[in-house]
Amino acid sequence: MSQLKTIQDGDLPIWLPRLAPQGGPRFLQIADALQAAVVDGSLTPGDRLPPQRRLAAQLEVDLTTVTRAYDEARRRNLLEGRGARGTYVAAPKAELTAILDLSMNTPPPPDGVDFDDMLKQGLSQVLLRADSALLMTYHLGGGSDSDRKAGAQWLAPMFGQLDFRQVVVCPGAQAAIAALILALTEPGDVILAEPASYPGLRAAATQFGRRIMAVEADQHGMVPEMLEEACRQQKPRLVYLNPTLQNPTAGTMPERRRKALAGIARRCAVRIVEDDPYWLLADAPPPPIATFAPEQVSYIATLSKCLTPGLRVAFVVMRSPQERERFLVALRSFALMAAPLTAALATQWILDGTADALMAGVRREARLRHRMARDLLAGRYSGGGDGLHVWLALPAYWTASQFALAADSAGIAVTPAEAFATGDVSVNAIRICLGSIQDRERLKAGLQRLSHLLASRPESFSAAVV
Length: 466
Fold this sequence. Notes:
Elements: E1 4-9, E2 12-17, H1 26-39, H2 52-59, H3 63-75, E3 79-81, E4 87-89, E5 100-101, H4 115-129, H5 132-135, H6 145-154, H7 156-159, E6 167-170, H8 173-184, E7 190-193, H9 199-207, E8 211-214, E9 217-218, E10 221-222, H10 224-234, E11 238-241, H11 255-268, E12 271-275, E13 297-302, E14 314-317, H12 321-332, H13 340-352, H14 354-376, E15 389-393, H15 400-409, E16 412-413, E17 415-416, E18 429-433, H16 440-454
Parallel strand pairs: 5-16, 7-8, 7-11, 11-12, 12-13
Antiparallel strand pairs: 1-2, 3-4, 6-14, 9-10, 13-14, 15-18, 17-18
Helix pairs in contact: 1-3, 2-3, 4-13, 6-13, 8-9, 8-12, 10-11, 14-16
């Protein structure tokens, strides 16, 4: 926390932080100092804050920094504006929306990252280097050459040197999955998946009239012998796999299993959709399945899970030119293209190192949160210590749907196993997402509430009827 010094402005004190060069963004240092002063009582509701220009001069920073600090303090419900009368310390507000959403799988905000500065710098570089007219028009080829080259660079940890012409830029992984289903299957075709899989697969398949069938999985993922048998019996067109930090189970498929599944795909002439959003967040993951059967596998890597969902950019690797063209035709039927401006921003961040720095921060924060979850949910925590979510086995006296309802009554949103089922649900578990709550202490409080709920029995949480 910043050290504070006090000076006088008439009869009102002003609390100024000593801005530290290595203390993170200056506007956050100022906002943190204001919050500290409110917490320790140095500032109380109704106290008037100094005019922004005066504070900027006293701190020797520009006016924009102070404006952003005040805006951040307002976001934290610390300040309120009273028009021409100025800015005042706000009275405490009752929390009417106390729900903690642990159901949405998003990257956690890393410490010390100033998204405003990242966006401004990234977009300014994009506008310096790109023709604004090109950023505001249609791009029908699956991304510009520069975006596809950036995608190949981003995928280098998985594949090494990659021909950028094999990379397609898409508006997110869900669009890529849907387009692959349209391009590689026909209505009524079977798609094989693990018993607990990403719900977006089922949503797209159902919408397009395809059938999802579950193949038995163990702790290492889909069982090869069961896949081979299902291929003989069902004649599927696609197999969907999420082999690294699987959603929802958080398991990572070992290399030997990946090779076995790739071999079956070749023998049975079935295509694999390898949805791999968490590979770069994992600790020493095995090579993608696509490296063992490149002609059989379409590989998807989205930036939504390791950087930020707002970019809406995913990269798809497809080796066959004919299949890439079919994929693009399918994609254009409902999504047309990734937004050129956000794709260009993603490219800029990849090329200038911002994306790597942001991802490293997300990885550090995710691992801190996993340690917290492991400590607070001891005995039932299932996770490798990385990634964005935890698969929590429930005691026998809770069902997943019961527990999710009880958690909701306690102000916490979690996702029961039924939401991920592609067949009969045999597992009694919930998924807890660790990145969707910005403040780590609020996440800790939510996990503590879940821990207490786990130790209680359902009859203690029967809902009132009104």
